[in-house]
Amino acid sequence: MRNSKWMKGVAAVLALAAMLVFCVPALADSPAAPNTFMVIRTGNSGKLNLRALPTTASESLGLYSNGTTVLVESASNGWAYVLVNGRRGYMATQFLARMTDGTNISSGTVMYVRTGNSGKLNLRVGASQQTGSLGLYANGTKVLMIQRIGDWAYVNVNGQRGYMMYKFLSFDGSSTPDTPTVDPTKAVAMVVKTGNSGKLNLRETPSLGARSLGLYANGTVLQAVSLGNGWHWVSVNGKIGYMMSQFLASYTAPVIPPEVVTPSTMYIRTGNSGKLNLRALPTTDSNSLGLYPNDMAVTVLATTGEWANVAVDGKMGYMMLKFLTATAPGSPVTPPSVIGTAVVRQPSNSYVNLRSSQNSEINNVIAQVPSGTVVDVLSWGNVWCRIRLTNGQEGYMVAHYLEKK
Fold first, then answer.
1. pTM summary value
2. Which position among 9, 97, 98, 193 has the lowest Cβ density within 10 Å, counted as fewest Cβ atoms?
3. Beta 47-51 vs 60-65: how paired, if at all?
4. pLDDT digits (tens, 9 = 90+) for 271-310
5. Do residues 369 and 350 touch, judged by C-beta distance below 8 A?
6. Does domain 340-404 correspond to CATH entry 3.40.50.300?
7. DSSP labels, 163-181
């Protein structure tokens, strides 16, 4: 009988412990604030897995103990897509609880200064901009956040404690946060579509309260690197940030739809000592995202007429196909073989333009070939033919002005 009572007592204690564990507030699906920091609460002394996919059978990317702070970007079906210690992955929502103002993390949560400019961030004596400064700290400086108090964070920086403005701290471990590494093969072309004449903000983090990195008008084409619940992580004009998914639509090229190809490596070959522009859009009037030298490797993701959608140096944009080659630097270049000859025939017996590309509406004339000139034909076409002159010059000529020999 005594043993029976003892067993019942133990059972009651265990039941109470279980109730306490599962009374920890769980994270609801689709949180209203995607940028909310959450605190892991596993209810035991163990650790929580960061999964590659939203399933317990997926690969574990790491184990994180109670008290670790994570950044929830989206949540659905019992799983949250989170950022923790610079890694992204999935955690079970039942083990996450909201970290409200005043939450104390005794061990300190690692964060980094991120002011968004070349300046530095003040460590203040108190939670006010009117208090004295204990020092200035540059972007990328590692700090330990002990407690959040409204718009301020109580932190430890190199052994010195004080207050920093919370909005200028980032959970992302990159010391150069404005140029994160992206996987261009997983990017999706999209376009800004706000439904009015306004512009759309590119946000530093997935939150309406986050700092704006720029405003982009309707029709702006961008690359969606990661699709989220309410927010997409995007690359636009060389900048990386977040845009609200409801104001983005799938992109269709205005004239020639992009032909998606298996990502392949090509090399810049401009034919001179200059550099090649990476354009934001497939047009020479578009903004340049950078200049890249001959022989530099780029990844071709798709082609649009005379343009290639490429990834290079962590950026995505467009380069002219005629200045790209599959031949690696140092490899022997085999000139195109001659498949025939032709005579240039101009009705008024004057000359015909030799062009660098198959387009008669742009300034691409490289030579004026007199009527009656015999040329080598490298490829025949219904509209354009590729030819070579006796001096070695190669280019395109309208097929109508060539008479086969």
1. 0.29
2. 9
3. antiparallel
4. 656 789 888 877 776 778 888 998 899 988 877 667 788 8
5. no
6. no
7. EEEGGGEES---SSTTS--
